[in-house]
Amino acid sequence: PRQSIIIDTDPGQDDALAILLAFAHGEALDILGITAVCGNISVQATAANALKVLALAGREDVPVFLGAASPLVGELVTAERLHGEAITEGWDLPVSTTAPRPEFAADWIIETVLSKPPASVTICALGPLTNIALAFAKRPDIASRLKRLVLMGGASQGGNMNAVAEFNVFVDPHAAARVFSAPVSKTVVSLDVTSKLLMTEYVLDRLTTVTSKITEQLKKLLTLYEGYTRTGRPRSLHDPAVIAWLLAPEIFSGKEVNVEIDTTPGLTYGQTIVDMNAVTGRATNAFWLTVADRDAFYELLESALARL
Ligand code: BDR
Ligand code: CA
């Protein structure tokens, strides 16, 4: 049966590829809507980029909603220093003729989850967890009504914002703390696994020569990675792993763990503290992925892109 999903996202090249991967597997995934959140760039820009991705996929029937414009506490830290110009410019893709819907993302999430049978909706979170935390704060009962939350965020083995914190959690650790303590089954795609999904030259060559209707645009989306890969510093592909886990969980393995979030300003701000050896006695609250099969992951992505 098809799984109903909501994609909460801050596109982001890797977010865009995740959305395209989901669309390519329409037989398995039914995208109810896309909620934009601030993160990589401002929420207006992430929503505009989400609309461009829908136009690219020929799926402008899917609604896009504007979400949080700033984290729960403090100012937004964007990923410009990570992603550079390519992301701030909103890419060289055709501008969409459609607009975000008027409803606020967190309200639409609540309404949608309440209108569907219990345990039927999965949220895929590809950015900071602000929208999800706001939805849970307003209607705590929707957390246990979800089927699952699959999120990209966190790290137990080294961060990408400070020594220990990953970007999505670092941008809004207060939201992450609320979400990790909420009664919803979670699968976590952290840097632990995405660091194993390096976009090597071999992978890039294959992805950029995929023959499909979107080949040219795909090349543009991958330009940013191209720069790193061709100069011998291949980067990880993060967000598509969330969708890949839904489609082919056998590509990954992981374990049930307790995760707590450090929200205290300082050297470890935004750290996901993962009780990997179950020594704290705290209840487990997440399924933490630890291993990914890179070849199988990229085969899934490549064949999906060819289907578009
Ligand atoms: C995460 O940060 C963002 O820049 C990416 O889109 C991904 O969601 C990786 O740390
Ligand atoms: Ca993202």
Q: What do these coordinates show?
A:
By secondary structure, the protein is α/β, with parallel strands linked by helices. The protein is 40% helix and 18% strand. Strands 4-3-2-1-5-6-7-11-8 form a 9-stranded mixed beta sheet, sandwiched between helices. Helix 1 links the parallel strand 1 and strand 2. Helix 1 runs parallel beside helix 2, helix 5 packs across helix 6 and helix 6 packs across helix 9. It is globular and about 50 Å long. The mean pLDDT is 93. Calcium ion (CA) binds next to loops. One of its GO terms (biological process) is purine nucleoside catabolic process.
Concise synopsis of the structure shown:
The protein has helices at residues 13-24, 43-57, 80-83, 85-88, 105-115, 130-138, 141-145, 167-171, 173-180, 191-194, 201-208, 215-221, 223-230, 240-247, 294-307, and strands at 3-9, 29-36, 64-66, 101-104, 121-125, 148-152, 186-189, 252-257, 259-261, 272-274, 286-292.
What is the CA–CA distance across the termini?
A: 21 Å
Strand residue content: 15-25%
- Which outline best applies? globular
Helix coverage percent: 25-40%
Residue-averaged pLDDT = 93
Q: Which strands sit side by side, in order, in the main sheet?
A: 4-3-2-1-5-6-7-11-8
Cofactors, ions and other ligands in the entry: beta-D-ribofuranose, calcium ion
